[in-house]
Amino acid sequence: MEPTIQDVARQANVSVSTVSRSFTRPELVSERTRSRVLSIAQKLNFSISRSATALKSGQSLRVAVLISGHLNTWFNSTILEGFNEVFSRNGYDISICQITSGQARREFFEALPVKRNVDAVIVTSFDIEASEVSRLTSINVPILSLNVTEENGFMASVRNDDFTGGMVSANHLIALGHKGIAYIRSTPVASLRFSVQARLEGFLSACKAVGIKPMVLAAPATENPTSAVLAKLESMKTRPTAIACQEDALAIPLIFQLQRFGIAVPSDMSVIGYDDSRFAEDIGLTTIRQKPYDMAVSLAKKTLQLIEGNTPENRHELIAPTLILRSSTGTLKR
């Protein structure tokens, strides 16, 4: 038979409400009494129901995280690790919602006010409409964003300055003497606008300032997108001397493909990535660093503050890009 809260109260010689408060409102119970209650609860293998705690507090103890793309990508898996570090320690579960289109996004925001089954919503990496933000704020559900280009009424946010990051990437290649430059991007979901678009816009802006018009190549949404990109490069009459990639996940396999076809990096072609993800250092990839784990931890702490009715001190964090110089970029050979 499962132990009950009455069993714990009887053995600890306290009331049932004292046992409940020992778990849910420890600040209202003396340290001595709470230690005795928890010790007996552990001995009996008793744990208070999360649903009962949620009912009493009026909270779901759940945070919705809206993510696009696969969960096993470096960025998504890393931010989830950061969120989990903070939320699980504070008794919250993460409800992951994969958003694959603008329609799916709209349906989420239309249904949530009726369900009211989360205490906060975090949007990651893609833009949403201002009306969707206001729909949640009207029912007092905090909505925050991670790496979303527009603040758009979010109660708090953390994001990389991707526009400046794109400029830094372009200016690095330009300073090395490169003029024949290509930019490789992923094929976007037509109905969603992603933060990575700002990287391309910053890159094009820096090139335009010095009269350079880079080639923009879209990597297809296939298992091996770099093969298709390489085929396009090989078919060009004048091959670029430098390539910037939207993310390391494109740059790393591209370097291996180039080397397989006898194109040396960086002596024949310079390659720069974006992320500083795992393996970037191992292969010597020059890249723009971002720290998704730290960003997620920071945003999760802001989320808890908002749930508790407090205003975070630094509501909107904009993180400056960092150029990480390694061996995959070099001076243009004359």
TrEMBL record:
Asked whether the keyword Nucleotide-binding is assigned, the reply is no
* CDD domains the UniProt entry points to: HTH_LacI (cd01392), PBP1_LacI_sugar_binding-like (cd06267)
The source organism is Bifidobacterium asteroides
What Pfam families would the database entry show? LacI, Peripla_BP_3
Name the record gives this protein:
LacI family transcriptional regulator
UniProt keyword annotations, A-Z: DNA-binding, Transcription, Transcription regulation
Tell me a Gene Ontology molecular-function term this record carries: transcription cis-regulatory region binding
Tell me the ranges covered by the HTH lacI-type domain, including all copies: 3-57
Q: Has UniProt tagged this entry with the keyword DNA-binding?
A: yes
